[in-house]
Amino acid sequence: MGGLFSAYAWNKIWNFRHGFLLGLGNTVVTALFGILLALLLGMLFGLMATSGRKGLRLISRVYVEFIQNT
After folding, report:
1. What is the largest CA-CA distance in the chain?
2. pLDDT of residue 7
3. For 27-45, what is each residue's pLDDT tens digit?
4. Residues whose CB falls within 8 Å of the CB of residue 9, separated by 6 or more in sequence, listed in order
5. What sign for the dihedral angle of Cα 16, 18, 24, 30?
6. In sequence order, which residues have a C-beta less than 8 Å from that of residue 13 and are 6 or more positions away?
7. Do the beta carbons of residue 61 and residue 45 sit within 8 Å?
8. Which of 3, 36, 42, 47 has the lowest CB atom count within 10 Å?
């Protein structure tokens, strides 16, 4: 049986498994970093938006509008 499910095709994947696992690891680390950065920025600009200072609210509103419109 040839094609996608042949032993030869799976052997190729098995031979390059270290590269695939390295790519998976890089993807997971990048995703976690992105989630952490988004959480920190969200908390920062959320606190700025609820601040009593007009300047901080303005900066927060400009940032949020810019991100939402891109």
Report:
1. 71
2. 85
3. 999 999 999 999 999 999 9
4. 3
5. negative
6. 20
7. no
8. 3
The two tokens of residue 43 are 């908390």
What is d(CA 3, CA 5) in angstroms, rounded to the nearest whole number?
6
Show the tokens assigned to 46. 């959320």
As given in the structure block, the two tokens for residue 17 are 């498994």
| Amino acid (1-letter code) at residue 2 | G
Calpha distance 59→35 (Å, rounded): 22
Contacts of residue 35, Cβ cutoff 8 Å, sequence gap at least 6: none
Find tokens 């609820």 and name the residue. 50
Return d(Cα 44, Cα 38) in angstroms, integer: 10
- How many Å apart are CA 54 and CA 22, to the nearest integer? 47
Nearest CA to 64 out of 44, 53, 23, 51 is that of: 44
